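Weekly modeling sync, notes
Attendees: S.R. (lead), two postdocs, one rotation student

Agenda item 3: backlog of single-chain predictions. S.R. asked that every request posted to the team notebook include the full sequence so nobody has to chase files. The rotation student volunteered to paste the first one in as an example of the format we agreed on. Action items at the bottom.

Example entry:
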Amino acid sequence: MITATRSDQDMRRTRDRQSERQRMRRLYLLLYPLCLLAAVTSRLSGHADDAADRPAQSVFAEARSSAYAAAGYAFHA
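Predicted structure, as returned to the notebook:
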């Protein structure tokens, strides 16, 4: 007989994934302002003087990618 309900293991796995997503979001919200500050400071400090040395992405995109990378490392530790 096929039942329409999920097993306890499936429900537990779904809850674990949801809680991991929430932790990732919280960690990202904590890291993003720090990465944004670092990206702005880097740009304003004059490390990219000529046009060839300037990054191709915006400050916000650079901060977003840095925050996601740092959060990803936190989950692999």
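Discussion: group reviewed the output briefly. The chain has a mean pLDDT of 82.
Action items: rotation student to repeat for the remaining queue; S.R. to check formatting next week.
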